[in-house]
Prior knowledge:
The complex is a heterodimer. By secondary structure, chain A is mostly beta strands.
Amino acid sequence: MQQKINEKVNVLVGFREKKFKPLAFYWQNRKRKIEKINLTYTAKTGRHDFYYFSVTSAGDYYKFCFDVTKMTWTLEETSF
Amino acid sequence: MSLYLHVDMDSFFASVEQQANPTLRGKPVGVTGGTGPRAVVVAASIEAKKQGVKTPTILAKAKLICPDFVPIWGDFEKYIFIHHQILKIFEKYTATVSVFSIDEAFLEVSRTARRFGGAQKIAELIKREFRGKLGERITCSIGIAPSRALSKLASKINKPDGVFVINQRNQKEILKTTAVESLCGVGFKTKKKLNQLGIVTAQDLGCYSLRGLIRRFGVNGYFLHALGRGEDLKGQEEENKIDCEKSFGHQYTFPENLDYQSSKDRAELKAKLFELCEGAARRMRRKNLACRTISLRIRFYNFSSFSRDKSFKCCFFSTEDVYQKASVLLDEAAPSFPLRLIGISLSTLTRECSQKSLFLKEQQKKNLSEALDDINSRWGELTVKTGHSLLSDGRGVFRESAFQRKFRA
Ligand SMILES: [Mg+2]
C-alpha cells in the first residue's frame, strides 16, 4: 500500500499568511498537481526542523518532507 | 456539581494513517512496531477490528485472522504531533485537562461548560474542530458525566464517533448493566476476586460494604467502593500516579534472535540494554524518583523466559548506574540459548535519593543526568548519547514509548 521512495524532488510552493504548502511537484518527468493536503506535521532532529506533508495527487498518495535547514524537498513515500 | 468529558480517539494511530493516506481508507490497516512476522501490531483500524484483529498482537497472527491485513510501520513523531494539536484544542474549553494516554484525556468542564452552552455543545465543538484541523478521518468518542470514572465508561458506549451522557437519570440503570471488568481500574485478577464475592456488575460493587472491600483489597477497597458508585476518590489523580508507578520498565523484541555467546550479538544486546535503561531511568527521573531494585528479563527463542533481580542498599537514578547493574545481571546470566526479547524494570522506588545527594559525586551525576534529559527532550531523543548505545538505532525505546504510554494506561 505504501512504498518508500526517498528521492529529492522539485516542488512548487505557495505562501500565505505565515503558512506554506506544496502545490505541485515534478517526479518521473511529469508535473503533478497536488489536489489535497491530508495531513501535516513537523518534527525536529537535532537542529533540523522538518515539515511533513501527506497529499493526494490524481488519486494517489504522496508524502513529502521539507528540510528547513537544507531547503530541500524529499518525496518519501507513495501508494502503489 | 462536577462535570467531566472523557475524549477517546477512535483507533487513533490507524486513523491518523488513514487520514494521511486516503488509499488506506476502508482497508484493514494495522500500525506495527516493525515489519518482520513477529512485529507487534499495536493499533488496528475500525475495519481490521471488525474482522477480528485484537491489539496488541503479532503481525503473523493478524495476517492469519485477516489475510488482507495491511501493516503500516508506526510513525510516532506524527502521532505525538497530532496528540499535541489535540491538547491545544482541548485547552480552549478548560484549563484542567488531564492526559490519560496518547489517545485519551479527561476535561474537567464544571465551571466552563455554561460559557460554551453546555458540555454536549463542547463535545460537538471539539468534534467539529478535529474534522477541520486534523482531518475528516480522525474522530473521537466522548463520554460526559459527573465523575471521571463515569465519563470514561460513557465514552465506550457510543463508539466510534459518538457522544454519550451519563447523568443522574440514567446512572443507576447503566451501573446495573455494566460488568465490573468494564470499569477502568478493574483488571483480570480483581475481576476474579470480585466475582468470588458475588460481585458481577458495577451496581453490585457499589452496594457492597466498604469494610468488606477493604478487608479483601486493602486500601484499594476505597477506590473500588467509589468506582462502583460512579464516584471518583478525592485526589485520585495524584494517588493513582504514585500508586501506579510501582516500577518503570522497558522491553524490546529483536527482529532476529541474538546469541549472547557471540561477541557481535553481545555488543548489540548491550547497546539495546543501555537504551532500555535510558528509557526507563528517564521516566523515573521525570517523576523525581530513584530505584533500589533492578530486574532483567529475557525471553528465549522458544518463548521460555528468565528473570533475575537484584536489590541494593543505595538507590540509583542515573542511566549509567542502572545500566552497569543491569549489564552485570546479564553477564551473570550469560544465557546460552538465542534470545528474542530483553527487558529491564526499575522498582522499589524512593524519593529519598533526591534529598540525600549531598555527596559531590552524586550531585554531579544528578546534574549531568538532568542536563542530558533537558537536551534530549528539547532536541530529540538520543541527540546526546553515550558510547554504549552507538550500535543501536533508538527504535524500540523512544519510538515505542508512545505505545507504552498508551498501554500503561
Ligand atoms: Mg482509543
